[in-house]
Amino acid sequence: MSNSFTSAVFETETMDVPGGTETILRGGRHLFPLLPEAFGGVRRIGVIGWGPQARAQSRNLRDSLAGTGIRVSVGLRPGSASAADARAHGFTEQDGTLGDWLDVVAESDLVILLIADAALAAHHEEIFAALRPGATIGLSHGFLLGHLRATGGTFPDGHGVIAVCPKGMGDSVRRLYEQGAEVNGAGINSSFAVHADPDGRAVDRALAWSVALGSPYTFQTSLEREYMSDIVGERAILLGAVHGLVEALYGHYRLEGDDPVTAYERSCENITGPIARTISADGLRAVRERLDPDGRDTFDRAYHAAYGPARDLVAEIYDEVADGTELRSVILAERRLASRPMSGIGGSPMWAAGDAVRARRGERTLPVDPFTAGMFVATMMAQVDEFAERGHPWSEIVNESVIEAVDSLLPYMHARDVAYMVDNCSRTARLGARRWGPRFQAAYEQLAFPAKPAGQEVNGFTDHPVHEALAAAARLRPSVDIHVA
Which range has the worst mean pLDDT, 128-142, 143-157, 180-194, 211-225? Predict the structure, then answer.
C-alpha cells in the first residue's frame, strides 16, 4: 500500500521513516477555518451512538465546527439510557441535534457509526437502508469490514466509506482536545482510511474529520490494516498482554519474598508509571540506557526470555483476527452476555494492594525495575516486529504499539489500575483482554521466568528501525502530557 496521499485543501508533510517516507497531516486549531471546504458539501454530520468515542467525537466535532453552518447531531436507539447524558452535554431534540438513530442517519451527509461492534454487526443493514443518497459512511474502527467479509456482505454502492481512528480512548480524545484550546495541536493522533470514494472527496473529508477531532498528526492506512492492528493491539500490548504481564510479575515478586505493596510497585506501578513515562518522553532505548550495568544485564536477560513467547502469541492473535475467529467470538459473546454479564477481573489478590500504592505516591521517586522493564519492552517489540513483518506502515506500527500505550492507555491505568481498565473498556477490547491476558500470563510464568539466557546485549534492539520511526513521530508530539481526571 502506498503511504502517500494528496489533499486539495490541507498542506501535507512528508515524514522520513525506515526505508522511505510517509505523507502525514499535522493538525491544529489554525486549520479549523478550512473545515467547511474540506468536508466538501457535508452540511449535517450524524454521530450514531453515545459510548466513549461517540461522546468525545460528537462534542469535538460540534465545537470545531461552531459557526460554520455544519450541524452535528447524535442518533440513539429508542429508549436509550444514554439520552439523558447526551442532553446534559448539549444535544437536544428541541434544536434537532438529538434524535432517533435511523432518523439521524436519514438526514445526515456524513454518518459516523460509533455504536458497539456487535450491535453494528447486527444492525448495519437497517442503517444502510436508511442512508440518504450519496451520504458518506464514517467508521472509527474496521470491525464492520471484517464482519462483512466474513458473512459475504458489502458496503452499499454509491456511498463513500471513510474511517478516522483515534489512537486513544474516547475520554483522552476529549480531554486532550480541551487542552488544545491552550496548547495548539494537543490531541490524540489518528489514522485515516478511504475504502470507497465515489465523488473523489473522501480523502479531504476524512482529513477534515480528523482535524476537527483535534488530532495533532494524521496518517494513512487501509480499513483492513486498521482493524487488524487495532484488534490485535487490544489483545496484546495495549491491554491483554499488560494484564497478563502484571499478574505474572506480581506473583513472581511475591514468590521472591516481596510484600504485596512492593510487588505491586515493581509490576503494575512500574509499567504504568516510570517505564511508560520514559518511553513517552525519550523513547524505547532510554529505558535500557538509563539503567546501571547490573540493571542492563537484568533487562537483557528478561528481554531475551520474554520476546520469543510474546512474539508467538502476537502472531497467533494476528492469525485469529485475520481469519475472523476473534470477530466471531465478539458476536457470539454479545448473545451470551445479554443474559449473563461478564464478571470483573479485579478480584485477584494483587489488586487489593493498588490503593496503598497510589496512596504513597509522592513519597519517593519510583525507579525503573530492570526485570519488569525487560519483560515489557520485549512484549512491545514483539508486536512491533509482527506488525512490520505483516506489512503495516511505520506510523501505524509506532502508534498502535507504542504511542497509544504510553500516551493514552497506560496513564489511564496508572490513575485507576489495569483491572479497572479491563473491566470498563469497550466490550470488544474487554473480551479480547479476558481471553488473551491469561495466555500471556501463562507464557511468562511457564516459559519466560524459568529461562536462564546469557546476559549479552539484546540482539537487534539498540539499532532497531523502530527507534527511527518513533523519533520521527515524536517530533510531531504536542508539548502536553495526558491529563486523567
Answer: 180-194
C-alpha cell at 322: 485475520
In order of their start, the domains of the chain are 13-214 (3.40.50.720), 232-474 (1.10.1040.10)
Tell whether residue 117 is among the known ligand binding residues: no
Its pTM stands at: 0.92
Q: What average pLDDT does the chain have?
A: 92
**Mean pLDDT in residue range 372-390:** 97
The β-bridge relationship of strands 20-26 and 13-17 is antiparallel
Helices (H), 46-92: 52-64, 83-88
Pairing verdict, β 136-139 and 110-113: parallel
Residue 247 marked ligand-binding = no
- 3-class SS of residue 43: coil
Q: pLDDT, tens digit, for every residue of 404-455?
A: 999 889 998 999 899 999 988 888 888 899 999 999 999 999 999 998 676 5
Distance of CA 139 to the CA centre of its chain: 14
DSSP string, 239-288: THHHHHHHHHHHHHHHHTT--HHHHHIIIIIHIIIIIHHHHHHH-HHHHH
Catalytic residue among 124, 141, 392, 464: 141
Please give the helix or strand (H or E) that residue 403 lies within, else none: none
DSSP-assigned states of every residue in 310-344: HHHHHHHHHHHHHTTHHHHHHHHHHHHHTTSPPPP
Identify whether the C-beta of residue 115 lies closer than 8 Å to the C-beta of residue 123.
Answer: yes
Q: Say whether 141 is catalytic.
A: yes
- Burial tier of 128 (Cβ tally within 10 Å: 0-12, 13-18, 19+): middle
Instruction: Write out pLDDT tens, residues 234-275.
Output: 999 999 999 999 999 999 999 999 999 999 999 999 999 999
Residues β-bridged to residue 453: none
Q: Which three cell numbers stand for residue 187?
A: 490531541
- The dihedral region occupied by 133, where left means phi > 0, alpha psi between -120 and 50, and beta the remainder, is beta
